[in-house]
Write a structure and sequence with these properties.
Elements lengths: L2 E10 L8 E9 L3 E5 L6 H9 L6 E5 L8 E4 L11 H6 L9 H18 L14 H14 L4 E6 L9 H13 L3 E6 L11 E6 L2 E7 L1 H7 L9 E4 L10 E5 L9 H11 L1 H8 L10 E2 L2 E4 L13 H6 L4 H4 L4 H19 L13 H13 L5 E5 L7 H16 L3 E6 L2 H5 L2 E6 L1
Parallel strand pairs: 3-7, 3-8, 5-6, 6-7, 11-15, 11-16, 13-14, 14-15
Antiparallel strand pairs: 1-2, 1-4, 8-9, 10-16, 12-13
Helix pairs in contact: 3-4, 4-5, 7-8, 12-13
């Protein structure tokens, strides 16, 4: 089969702690849908940057049919459309030909209408893009790539996920264009519904192509699982004493767009006996992260801080006003100073008046978790705990996790990447 993209042993360093590529390999053939996924920090964002704008690599090559990869179209879910232009103008804007003049405008509209009819989209070519729904913008971006005769369309699902109602129409459009010889590369942080229509699925881990599924293996991967209790345990006791002191939950079947609470609820429902005997976590409503002494720390907790406030303000805002609000100012100030002294002792983060925006990623992550620690929970579950961290930051965060364990708090690491938790967990539940 004719190749439209080949990445050969590429090594590329990320400048944003998003995970380096280390000898990464990938090939996409004509008329093929390839789904590549890996959590943040695995190199998935660096791979997107490599295909989008920055082809500079430390080692390896990025090749297309003619020795380069220039006929790649990046579809960022409609964000590459110009809102104040019409649908037809957006589809023609990158051709390099002028859009003006009565005859020329008629040509542009007529050509756009042919492609829209072929795609099955029920939108007019003379509509302004700002009048379209988000779903229509997503689909129009792919039709635009088809009109520009792109040999490979890259769908960026790493920073934003498609809504559930978009998936059937999007899948139908991708399959229609695949049959016409267009290739698609879908990049995501977890395995989603679009993997079911893909010809190959690749999993990334620590900058490498960890595993690939195709044919019958892919059918088994994307098939619906039975509802019986089928979870097992992975023994990690071969590590040195003291290194592995946490528990882990492996989320291999997690899918794009589902909340942490929903994924936990699914594991609980399908592995009821194992959940009751070993996990023992309460049911979390969608809008709650703390229930009955158990706390969920989502992977984006560091981004949920108030960055325009100081470290002290972020820590103290988690203390209920009923505890300190009714006290005299000197007493309340003394209580708050004790809380902050404990915080600095545990985290090694200095400066009460330091703006949160000035902290490193790992310091923000520790701060976000420490605010929940003040409520003295019995269990803290961390989703993708090392998301976006380099190795030095990962070790710094592990120091904090070991402090939690020493204080008697049960620490659970929840991840879809076995290598992320296998090194630190003495026992891993594999639903």
């Amino acid at each position: 089969m004719q190749e439209v993209l080949r990445i050969v042993d590429v090594t590329k360093k990320s400048e944003k702690s998003q995970g380096d590529l280390r000898g990464y390999n990938l090939e996409v053939c004509r008329g093929e849908i390839v789904y590549v996924y890996g959590p943040a920090g695995s190199g998935i964002r660096t791979l997107f940057e490599l295909l989008d704008t920055d082809r500079n690599t430390t080692d390896g090559k990025v090749l297309g049919p003619a020795g380069s990869a220039d006929s790649i179209y990046i579809s960022q879910e409609g964000r590459n459309l110009i809102e104040n232009l019409t649908v037809a103008e957006n589809m023609e804007i990158e051709s390099g030909r002028p859009l003006y003049g009565i005859y020329r405008n008629k040509q542009v509209v007529g050509k756009a209408e042919r492609y829209l009819e072929e795609s099955g989209l029920s939108i007019r070519a003379d509509m302004c893009v700002r009048e379209l729904t988000q779903t229509q913008k997503h689909l129009l971006s792919i039709v635009k790539a088809r009109m520009q005769h792109a040999s490979l369309v890259v769908l960026d699902c790493t920073t934003m996920t498609y809504e559930e109602q978009e998936i059937p129409q999007l899948a139908a459009l991708l399959c229609r264009y695949r049959d016409q010889g267009v290739s698609f590369l879908i990049l995501s942080e977890r395995r989603g519904e679009l993997a079911k229509i893909s010809d190959r699925v690749q999993r990334m881990s620590r900058g490498r192509d960890l595993m690939e599924w195709y044919g019958r293996e892919l059918e088994e991967l994307t098939a619906n699982r039975p509802g019986s209790d089928k979870s097992g345990f992975r023994d990690s006791s071969e590590a040195a004493d003291g290194e592995k002191s946490f528990e882990g939950i492996l989320d291999l079947m997690g899918e794009t767009g589902r909340s942490l609470q929903d994924r936990l609820r699914t594991i609980r429902r399908e592995n009821r006996l194992t959940w009751q005997q070993n996990v023992r976590l309460p049911d979390f409503p969608e809008d709650r992260f703390c229930v009955d002494g158990a706390v969920l720390i989502p992977r984006k907790s560091a981004l949920m801080l108030c960055e325009n406030m100081t470290v002290r303000e972020n820590v103290l805002m988690s203390i209920p006003r009923r505890v300190s609000g009714g006290l005299l100012l000197p007493v309340r100030r003394s209580m708050e100073d004790n809380v902050m002294a404990r915080f600095h002792e545990v985290t090694n983060i200095e400066g009460d008046k330091t703006p949160v925006a000035g902290l490193s990623l790992v310091e923000k992550k520790i701060l976000s978790a420490c605010r929940w620690e003040l409520s003295k929970p019995k269990t803290m579950l961390f989703e993708n705990p090392f998301w976006g961290m380099d190795l030095s930051e990962e070790e710094e965060f592990l120091v904090y996790l070991r402090h939690l364990k020493k204080d008697g708090i049960r620490v659970i690491l929840f991840s879809g990447v076995l290598s992320e938790i296998d090194r630190w967990c003495e026992r891993i539940i594999c639903p």
